[in-house]
Specification:
18 strands, Heme iron utilization protein-like fold, 10 helices, alpha+beta, about 35% strand, nine-stranded antiparallel beta sheet, globular
C-alpha cells in the first residue's frame, strides 16, 4: 500500500525531497527509507556516532546536510578538526562546521539511490538529523570500506519509533527583570544558552521579554530584502541551521541568491541554503553584549517558536562586528538598539 502511494506521489510531483514525501504520506522519513519504495535502499550500520565521525576525515570531500522542517543547509568540504568524545562532538573544518549532540544520534544507515550514495543519521522518531553525501571528489574506496566495515544485520522486525519530543514551551519568564540583567551581563554569545536554562525560558519567549533594545521584532518581509542586501554588498555571514542533533554553520558570502516559489535559495559552489519563507512566522534582530562589542543577529522563527535559521556577521574571535553589518540590521528596526 505504501509503495503504491509513494509511486503515485512520485509520478504526480517528481523531485520532492524524501522528508516532504514522508510527511505527505503520513510516515516517518526513516520508515519510508526502509520500505523499499522506488529506488531507495537502506542498510543499518553498527557503529557508534563518535566512531563514525572520527572515520569521516579519511573519505575526503563530501556534502554535509543538516535541516529542520523549514530550512536545508548543505556544505561541501571535508570533516576536519573532529572531536568526538562522550555526548558532544565538534567538526571545525574550513567549510564543514558542526556542533553535534550525540544523544539524538539514534541510528545510522547507508543509503543508496540511483545517482547518490550517503550515510544518514536519524533520531528516535525516525527523523534525519544529519546526512553525508558522496561527491565526485569523495574517495569512494574509503567510503565503501567504511560502510562495509560497519554493516549491521538486516532488520527483519518492524522499526520501533518514538514520537518527536514536544517543542520548548512558550511561557514567559517568571523573572523578566532578572533575565534582562543576565542578558546585559553576558561577555560572550556562548553564555546565552546557560542564561535561558537558568531562567527556565525558551528562546523566543526570552526575546519577547528582554526589551526592544536587546531583541526587536521586525516585519517578516524584511528577511528576504535583508538577505538580498547582504548578498549584493558581499557581506560575510555566519549562517546557522539546527535540529536537535546538529548545529551546522556556514561562514562566507551569499553570492547566488534566488527565489523559487516559497523557497529562498543560496546556490553557491560549496554552500547551498533552501529556506521556506512561507513558514517564517516572525523575524527578530537580536542584540547581545560581548567583550568584543555588541553582536547583532538576524533570526527567523516558526509558528511554534522554533528557530529556523540565524545569520550573524562573519568575524574572528577577538574582533568586533563589521560596522556595515550592524548598520544594515539597525536599519531594519523601528527603535534603537542598545549600544
Amino acid at each position: 500500500m505504501l509503495r503504491a502511494r509513494f509511486q503515485a506521489l512520485s509520478d504526480a510531483e517528481p523531485g520532492l525531497r524524501i522528508r516532504t514525501m514522508a510527511k505527505r504520506l503520513g510516515v516517518a522519513e526513516l520508515e519510508l527509507l526502509c520500505s523499499g519504495c522506488g529506488d531507495l535502499s537502506a542498510r543499518p550500520l553498527a557503529v557508534s556516532p563518535q566512531a563514525l565521525l572520527r572515520a569521516l576525515p579519511a573519505i575526503n570531500e563530501v556534502m554535509a546536510v543538516t535541516r529542520n522542517p523549514w530550512c536545508v543547509h548543505e556544505c561541501t568540504g571535508r570533516y576536519e578538526g573532529v572531536r568526538a568524545e562522550r555526548q558532544v562532538g565538534l567538526v571545525t573544518g574550513d567549510t564543514i562546521d558542526l556542533r553535534i549532540y550525540f544523544n539524538h544520534w539514534h541510528s545510522i544507515w547507508a543509503v543508496s539511490q540511483p545517482d547518490r550514495r550517503s550515510i544518514q543519521v536519524f533520531d528516535r522518531s525516525g527523523t534525519a538529523v544529519h546526512k553525508i553525501y558522496a561527491t565526485p571528489q569523495t574517495h569512494m574506496p574509503d567510503f565503501e570500506a567504511l560502510i562495509e566495515r560497519h554493516l549491521g544485520p538486516d532488520r527483519d522486525e518492524d522499526l520501533v519509533l518514538q514520537p518527536s519530543p514536544p517543542t520548548a514551551p512558550l511561557d514567559p519568564p517568571a523573572d523578566p527583570a532578572g533575565l534582562r540583567a543576565g542578558w546585559l551581563a553576558m561577555t560572550e554569545t556562548h553564555q546565552f544558552f546557560p542564561l535561558l536554562q537558568r531562567f527556565r525560558v525558551g528562546r523566543l519567549p526570552a526575546l519577547q521579554a528582554v526589551g526592544p533594545d536587546l531583541a526587536q521584532r521586525i516585519p517578516t518581509r524584511y528577511l528576504e530584502d535583508a538577505l538580498r542586501r547582504i548578498s549584493l554588498r558581499g557581506l560575510g555571514v555566519a549562517c546557522y541551521v539546527s535540529n536537535r542533533g546538529v548545529v551546522q554553520i556556514y561562514t562566507g558570502a551569499l553570492d547566488n541568491l534566488s527565489r523559487s516559489g516559497e523557497w529562498i535559495n543560496v546556490l553557491d559552489a560549496r554552500f547551498n541554503l533552501h529556506l521556506d519563507i512561507d513558514h517564517v512566522d516572525s523575524v527578530w534582530v537580536v542584540n547581545k553584549p560581548t567583550e568584543d562589542g555588541w553582536v547583532t543577529a538576524l533570526e527567523a522563527y516558526a509558528e511554534g517558536g522554533e528557530l529556523i535559521v540565524q545569520f550573524l556577521a562573519a568575524r574572528k574571535p577577538g574582533k568586533p562586528e563589521l560596522r556595515a553589518w550592524r548598520d544594515l540590521l539597525v536599519g531594519l528596526c523601528d527603535g534603537p538598539l542598545a549600544v
